[in-house]
Amino acid sequence: MLVRELWLTDFRSYATAHLLAAEGTCVIRGRNGVGKTNLLEAIGYLATLSSFRGAPNEALIRAGADSAVVRAEVEVEGRVQLLEAEISRNGRNRVQVNRQRLRRASDLLGTLRVSVFSPDDLELVKGGPSGRRNLLDDLLVALHPRNQSVRSDWEKALRQRNALLKQVGGRLDESAELTLEVWDDKAAAAGEELASLRSALVERLAPAVTSAYRDIAGEEVPVELVRVAGWSGSLADALRAARKDDLRRGVTTVGPHRDELSVLLEAMPARTHASQGEQRCLALALRLASHREVAEETGTPPVLLLDDVFSELDPKRCEALVGSLPAGQAFLSTAAVLPEAVKADQEVEVTPGELSRVSD
Fold first, then answer.
1. Which residues pair with 17 in a beta bridge?
2. Which of 327, 307, 298, 302 is CA-nearest to residue 112?
3. What is d(CA 7, CA 176) in angstroms, rounded to the nearest whole number?
4. Paired strand residues for 359
5. pTM over 0.85
6. pLDDT one-digit tens code per residue, 244-265
């Protein structure tokens, strides 16, 4: 899987930009704040139709512009395809493959796969549960794009149920009760399926994270992943039991959105008991294990996006991480000197809003 060329129009800080990418490691250099991460974010957007920085679509459009366009020529299993996404400030976004507009934007998922490593990954371990839930759900989609429909079905049912609970203000008439029953049924079906997928993934991912932690930290330490469900029994029964409380609060209190992925290091919660160095190793291990799982499942390593990761690591861990990555294309941003273990096939110099020099 390769990104051969990338074109940007009014994306973030770039009025226009063009990158002809090497097949190996492309190092993107420049001072902080000049737009290095924006290039990686654009590639990630074409893979997931979202920002790995959690930014809303309007933040991706250059100030003063009505829309942004991200276009890339990618090669997957020997087949070259042109991917295009137009991000609109006011209207609907548009996604095309080989100049043909997709009926549903989600049909793009799986065409390009990426694995993102960033300094913010530390929050996967020390932050709240939403980041860990997103890690699992993003991985489910990367492994099998059809899982996006399960995720979307649950999120839609949750939104609709919450909107109804807020609308009725704690009082159900006959019509509202019938509508709530409909959304309870939809939420229960989608939520149970999503929970089952998450549980199977956690079981599969746990030994891979242990192995990745050993490779990065250089020591054999038991790592456990445990999915703590956001309800007990069947979700349908849990929703019925929680209805009175949900009506009072105006929000759904049970379901997959309350799940927790507990990360344990030597049987202790890593979020509260691990050192920051151990937490950083665990975060890298979660990303590395996910990357390996997708590479093994699909037969092709995802494109790696490494956003200033090495500035946060000591030389030993830098070398261990580089040595642990499967072969494949990588885009690496940095404002500092790279560790010796990184061998660049291409270097791109970035100044504010433009690519000023490319060397191979």
1. 8
2. 302
3. 49
4. 347
5. yes
6. 999 999 999 999 999 999 999 9
